[in-house]
C-alpha cells in the first residue's frame, strides 16, 4: 500500500518542476520571438515613411517619420506604445515646424510653432490636451499678433489683437467661452468709443 503523504509530497515536487519548466519555456519563447525589433513602413511608391523600434510588440524609443523626399518630417518618443516626452515636427526644408510635449499619449506642456524661416509663430501651454494660460501668436516680423487667455480649453479672460506694427486694435473679454465685451482701438492704439 502507498503512503498518502509520500504520494502528496511527490505530487508537490512534480508540480513545482512542471511549473518551473513551463516558466522556462515561456522565457525562451519571449526571448526568441518578442525581443526588440526595428520596423519600417514605406510609401506606396517605395520611399521610407516611418521607422522605429518595438519591444514585446509595443512601440519603444524614437519614432521617425519621413517626407517622400527622405527629409525628416517628425521625431517623437514612445514608451509602452504611448508618446512620451518631446515631439518635433519639421518643414521639408529641415526647419522646425512644431515642438510639443506628451505624457502617456496626451498633450502636456509647452507647445511652439514656427514659420518656415525659423521665427516663432505660436507659443502656448497645454494640459491634458487643453489650452491653459496665455496663447501668444506672432507676425513674421516678430511682433505680437494675438494674446488669448484659456482655462481648461475654454476662452476665459482677455484676448487682445494687435496689428503688424504691434499696436492694439481689439480687446475681447470671455468667460467660459462666451464673449462678454469687445473694445476696438484706432491705428494709434486709442480706444474707439461705441
Helix tally?
1
Task: Give the strand tally.
Answer: 17
For the record, give the distance between the C-alpha atoms at the N and C termini, rounded to a whole number. 108 Å
Shape: elongated
Keywords:
194 residues; alpha+beta; 3 domains; 17-stranded antiparallel sheet; 1 helix
Structure overview:
By secondary structure, this protein is of the alpha+beta class. The chain folds into 3 domains: 1-33; 35-107; 125-194. The protein is built from 1 helix and 17 strands. The chain has one helix at 4-33; strands at 37-42, 48-55, 58-66, 72-79, 82-83, 85-90, 96-103, 106-107, 109-114, 120-127, 130-131, 133-138, 144-151, 154-162, 168-175, 178-185, 191-192. The protein has a 17-stranded antiparallel β-sheet that branches. A hairpin with a 2-residue loop joins strand 2 (48-55) and strand 3. The longest helix is centred in the N-terminal third of the chain and has 30 residues, at 4-33. It is elongated and about 90 Å long. The model has no long low-confidence stretch (mean pLDDT 86).
Produce the secondary structure layout.
Blueprint: H1 4-33, E1 37-42, E2 48-55, E3 58-66, E4 72-79, E5 82-83, E6 85-90, E7 96-103, E8 106-107, E9 109-114, E10 120-127, E11 130-131, E12 133-138, E13 144-151, E14 154-162, E15 168-175, E16 178-185, E17 191-192
Antiparallel strand pairs: 1-2, 2-3, 3-4, 4-5, 4-6, 6-7, 7-8, 7-9, 9-10, 10-11, 10-12, 12-13, 13-14, 14-15, 15-16, 16-17
Amino acid at each position: 500500500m502507498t503512503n498518502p503523504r509520500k504520494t502528496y509530497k511527490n505530487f508537490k515536487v512534480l508540480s513545482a518542476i512542471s511549473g518551473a519548466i513551463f516558466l522556462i519555456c515561456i522565457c525562451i519563447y519571449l526571448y526568441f520571438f518578442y525581443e526588440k525589433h526595428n520596423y519600417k513602413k514605406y510609401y506606396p511608391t517605395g520611399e521610407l515613411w516611418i521607422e522605429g523600434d518595438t519591444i514585446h510588440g509595443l512601440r519603444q524609443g524614437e519614432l521617425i517619420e519621413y517626407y517622400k523626399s527622405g527629409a525628416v518630417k517628425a521625431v517623437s518618443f514612445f514608451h509602452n506604445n504611448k508618446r512620451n516626452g518631446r515631439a518635433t515636427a519639421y518643414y521639408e526644408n529641415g526647419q522646425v515646424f512644431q515642438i510639443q510635449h506628451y505624457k502617456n499619449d496626451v498633450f502636456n506642456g509647452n507647445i511652439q510653432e514656427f514659420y518656415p524661416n525659423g521665427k516663432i509663430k505660436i507659443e502656448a501651454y497645454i494640459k491634458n490636451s487643453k489650452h491653459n494660460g496665455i496663447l501668444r501668436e506672432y507676425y513674421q516680423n516678430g511682433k505680437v499678433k494675438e494674446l488669448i487667455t484659456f482655462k481648461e480649453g475654454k476662452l476665459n479672460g482677455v484676448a487682445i489683437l494687435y496689428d503688424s506694427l504691434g499696436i492694439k486694435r481689439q480687446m475681447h473679454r470671455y468667460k467660459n467661452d462666451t464673449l462678454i465685451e469687445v473694445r476696438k482701438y484706432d491705428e494709434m492704439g486709442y480706444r474707439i468709443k461705441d
